[in-house]
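Hi F.,

I've been meaning to write this up properly since the lab meeting, where we talked about keeping a consistent format for the predictions we share between groups. The idea is simple: the sequence comes first, exactly as it goes in, then the structure tokens exactly as they come out, then a line or two of notes. No screenshots and no reformatting. I'm using this chain as the first example so we have something concrete to point to.
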Amino acid sequence: MQEDNNEEFHEEELKDNFGSQETITKVTGMYKDWFLDYASYVILERAVPGINDGFKPVQRRILHSMKDLDDGRYNKVANIVGHTMQYHPHGDASIADAMVQIGQKELLIDMQGNWGNTLTGDRAAASRYIEARLSKFALEVVFNPKTTEWQSSYDGRRKEPIDLPVKFPMLLAQGAEGIAVGLSTKILPHNFNELIDASIKHLKGKSFRLVPDFLTGGIADVSNYNDGKRGGKIRVRAKISQQDKKTLVITDIPFGTTTSSLIDSILKANDKGKIKIKKIEDNTAANVEILVHLPSGISPDKTIDALYAFTSCENSISPLGCVIDGNKPVFIGVSEILRTSTDHTLNLLKLELEIQLNELEEQWHFASLERIFIENRIYRDIEEEETWEGVIKAIDEGLKPHIKHLKRVVTTEDIVRLTEIRIKKISKFDIDKAKQFIESLEDKIAIVKNHLENLVDYAVDYFKNLKEKYGKDKSRRTELRMFDDIVATKVVMRNSKLYVNKEEGFVGTSLKKDEYVADCADIDDVIVFRKDGVMLVTKVDSKTFVGKNIIHIAIFKKSDKRTVYNMIYRDGRAGPSYMKRFNVTSITRDKEYDLTNGSKASFVQYFTANPNGEAEVVTISLRSVGSVKKLKWDIDFSDLLIKGRGVKGNIVTKYPIRKIELKSEGVSTLNPRKIWFDETVQKLNVDNRGELLGEFKGEDRLLIINQKGEAKTVKPELTTHFESDMIILEKWIPNKPISALYFDGEKERYYIKRFMIDNPNKEEIFISEHPKSQLEIVSTDYRPVIEVVYSKRSLDNFEINLEEFISVKGIKAQGNQLTTDKIRTVNHLESLPYEVPVTEEIEVNDEEILDGNEGKSKDEDPDQTALFE
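Output, unedited:
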């Protein structure tokens, strides 16, 4: 009672302090019990699967009903649903939906009719129109009434299984998803054969690793899967390839999407301006085929990345392994689920063998009794008996001299069974056949005992048999690959235009009467430099005030170390002029940064933005003041180091500057950029992943040759996509010849040619375009060598130096015929040595240039001495 008074006082105090807008009421009494009962029911009986058989209750009851009705023929789904309602106390619609979901996983139900399409999202036909029966796999691994534990159904009229005796990791094969009260579960499906292999490894005491596999195929990055536990994440992508320069084709979709939802997300991204497409065709039938047509002038490579960045072509899935174990929910990983399932299968196999052994021993026992009873004519001992007790006693006495070899005592039930033997069987009894039957039972008993003694080996053979019988058409559908992170600002379609009013200080996409800056997207940031030496970065909007007297504006690239800003500013109203070189790699959005020394009335006298670290030469002209004799001289920005944006800079002069003029354009002061090719993700990078392709300057290009005999050069952009039939990818050296051996399908002869790329901006095919033409060998070595092996054994193999065989000609030249004799094969041998002419290059160290002395003043940095006084 005292507690109630305290609670009332506390509530009144809360009302006084915070008002009476909100009150806290404790749920007590039957409300508390009802909610707990409801939550427990939903968790245990509706949403979460059991760990032993991997089924939710509705799934378990559907399969049990199908087994009840099973006669080898198809049953109407409506009939199965009605039968299931005897066990499942819910509506027919929920049962029918659950049954369709089981069927669409293509494992336990043999379907007939329109069961819907998981690729397109089309629903199944009504349950009265479709039919089903249990699959052979389900009949083999799911049911065994002898090992099943039973309980009463909800109305007490029937018996239903507590758990089905499933001898397979069914939960991991099918996956499961459910939302209960206070918790949820999301177990992803895994590959049938990989689960069997993992079970075998567990039985043998070896380690294993499981990753998801989806019926929809696609590509998955499972590096953060975390064994399917809470906190893990996988990324799934559609398979997108380039059919031609204006068409992309999607052949697999990510798990959890349909072709309809995928197309909707692409159309929405197009409407928002994130991507630009012409039209979409959905040709999906048994397999996915979505054609994305692009307008002219749109990069297919960039569009592929944009589809991953802005549409459902890439999704993240967070698994959550929650199962019912011991009548309560537990959170475990997929490895633990598989180990538990495999151990449960082992126990079920042991129980089946023990039941089988007991049945065989009972058969052997009665067959032996029957043989003794008939062979020794004990049935004649009962002819004089008048009572049933006398008959039983006479048979028991007649058996005693002959039953020493039996394995258990003879019971009254055994004797009663002997009395039920028909006279016809006694008259036709064959002692030899009886002996053979008993011996065959002894052989079976020996086999079962051997299985029990070597239970693990028996279980391994069981799993291998399942894989051989049912795993032939269950290869992995989802390709595993490491994904690179796509930077949205690099792939977004810039379909808006950015304008600026430099005097008034406004920037935005709606200022169409003002100065055009660049194409932009709504996710871009804009970097702005003002005359007063202030810099800020803000998000693109229709109209934003950034400050008057803008001297430079551009789209901001985060972490951009190659764009260098050259600047000369005057410190204060009458102070000296300083010069500095800096880059901007990271900022706080909408924060103003002062790039000068901070004195009042400072202003910028000269400013350039250089995308590749260029350093120009400028001419300084002073005002004629006092005794100053030198009024004009040149300054080279390359004499300055690139430092942080906060440095004070080096003194140019302490006298007033009249004007600054550009004398000569700058050249890059940065090193050529090293580029690698990561074969795992099929992308270029600058992060030291994969194979180093070389160091690239602004004018350098990549050479790409594919199996179709097509050659092209491209700029080494990090967003470039590469096809799987690519056979050569390297830095293009314009004067380096390409050697090729190909089979001409029209003339049915082998030809050799050597050529160079004449037009680097054009993709050209260098073999004949006949359908049977095929590229055999291509080499970019200076002096390649091949070996020809003839079909005729009388002809010796011979080597050919391609440099001597044919001179360099045009890319369209047919080349020289290799031989008129039939060739079995051609081998590419080690090339002859060749010394590449050495050209001297000045090496510039990026680390020396980018020393990052950010925020240092002149007094703190001894290198910042005056260049000119």
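Notes:
The longest strand covers residues 657-668.
Residues 1-20, 839-869 have pLDDT under 50 and may be disordered.

If this format works for you, I'll send the rest the same way.

G.
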